[in-house]
Design goal:
homodimer, Rossmann fold, 6-phosphogluconate dehydrogenase C-terminal fold, 3-stranded mixed beta sheet, globular
Chain lengths: ~300, ~300
């Protein structure tokens, strides 16, 4: 298999794939990253065409692990030099990548992926072989998914120590807007409102403010790329949050009560704490109705641990 | 000194005061709590009149450590049985308590306090002698503050291992609305919006959602009491947050950018991380202009470590 982009995610993936016994090589645009990967004993190069031709000759699985802005150019190179290889990706938004894949004419060979792992650090040097251990790895179940490629992508995730959650692109994007992108916008908002109270307010801040603003410490460029790359789904989640907060504001002003928001929020957090994690078994990719059954299992919180 | 209410805060205060070498006794309405305190070797009773008469005979400092709804009745008892004792409190809102104190005719003998410590647990049994160690303890600086009583209250806080931040009631309430009550409302909102994504969304949730919703796990009654007890100041903070989020929603929808919110939020969080904690020295309670100087120091992030 072949990993295009050797940053935190791609670099960790190359390490984990090799440890799992796979023949895997990587590409990075930057010579420095390639040298760093080679110094650590990995097979890497900065000649994209050569890397893709090698993939094409062995029908290797290609993993796109570049930032969203570089996805189109990467897909164009794959379409030119390795059009018959199976392709997946690890980009944090799925709808936009699927559209780009379709524009590049590679939809038949593509199954999207998104490992829910990472930190605010970036680059080859911060990658680790265990980054995906017990992480959730979404594997796409859009209409027309090729069961053989789906199986390859799911096996890669499992080989890396992750568990697989099947989901359609739009479902994935809606979910991460709610549980990853909205939290960032709320954290930024809280940080600004607290800071507006000056040193007195910041000096009184304890756990609730510290935890509630933690991700506002992430690099603005990364937060913007995540949030703006998932605009449509994030707008839906943000509008829901605005309605909840606006209603709470009215209730507090008019009746003095915060009961509706506080009780619903507490019940919601309990459902998160007590969520039932269960294992998906007995669905064979390619058998009749397998895509629908995978999607349904993903919606109900199922995870695949073996295939 | 005499502690009225032996829950988490009052019970911890009684323990810490005794360890600091003070003669201290407590009152609690519940016989069971009184027995528990006595079993742990502390001087406690459930006869409020007897406890207050004893305070009156020794001019003891009285600490009100009951929930906000019980404050008026407690003040009425103090006014009847120990009207000449100095009085402080540890209630989490200050403006409302100051109003109740004025209604009870005890304003001359009162200096408010608020130790920024506690957990979601409650009752004598969860108290600890070290609850206030290195905690911030706000001591009130409203107009007309008696410097001798202020010094008594500040010394109590220091004896318990806390640092003292001087602030007026309204400033305190505005600050905690921003850094303690707004975080709760945002956490509830995030919990509901994430949960609306169903098991798929909750199953993909990682650090940003977990941290951003943590305080939504607090008991709704406690969250409501805090937030609703500080309504006016919380409405100001909530309106600011709504404007920030509303503007961000418009910008994301119209231009696709989250730059304004994300960059301001990141800068604000950095100011929180890098806040300058400095020690207040050289202000003697009672000397000319001491109240103004204390307030100014509190506003600029100063803390008193000795007196």
């Amino acid at each position: 298999m072949c990993v295009l982009g050797l940053g935190l995610i791609g670099g960790s993936l190359l390490r984990a794939a090799v440890r799992a016994g796979r023949t895997a090589w990587g590409y990075n645009r930057s010579e420095a990253s390639v040298r760093a990967a080679r110094d650590d004993g990995f097979d890497a190069g900065s000649d994209l065409v050569a890397v893709l031709r090698r993939a094409s000759e062995s029908s290797a699985l290609i993993v796109i692990s570049v930032p969203m802005p570089a996805v189109d150019a990467t897909l164009a190179a794959i379409a030119e030099h390795a059009p018959n290889c199976p392709v997946t990706d690890v980009v944090s938004v799925k709808g936009k990548v699927a559209e780009a894949v379709a524009r590049a004419g590679l939809a038949d060979r593509y199954v999207g992926g998104h490992p829910m792992a990472g930190t605010s650090a970036s680059g080859w040097s911060v990658g680790t072989v265990d980054l995906f251990r017990e992480a959730v790895w979404v594997v796409g179940t859009d209409d027309g998914t090729d069961p053989a490629i789906w199986t390859q992508v799911a096996r890669l995730a499992l080989d890396c120590g992750a568990v697989v959650v099947p989901a359609e692109s739009t479902e994935h994007d809606s979910a991460v807007a709610r549980i990853s992108h909205l939290p960032h916008l709320l954290a930024e908002t809280l940080a600004i409102t607290g800071d507006a109270g000056g040193p007195l307010a910041l000096g009184l801040a304890a756990g609730s403010f510290r935890d509630g603003t933690r991700v506002a410490g992430s690099a603005p460029a990364l937060v913007r790329a995540m949030c703006e790359g998932n605009r449509d789904a994030l707008l839906v989640a943000l509008d829901e949050a605005l309605v909840l907060l606006g209603d709470a504001r009215l209730a507090l002003g008019e009746t003095g009560s915060t009961a509706a928001l506080v009780e619903a929020g507490h019940a919601a957090r309990l459902r998160y704490d007590e969520q039932d994690v269960w294992e998906i078994t007995g669905i064979v990719p390619g058998e009749d109705g397998w895509l629908d059954r995978m999607r349904d299992a993903g919606r109900r919180g199922g995870r695949l641990r073996r295939l």
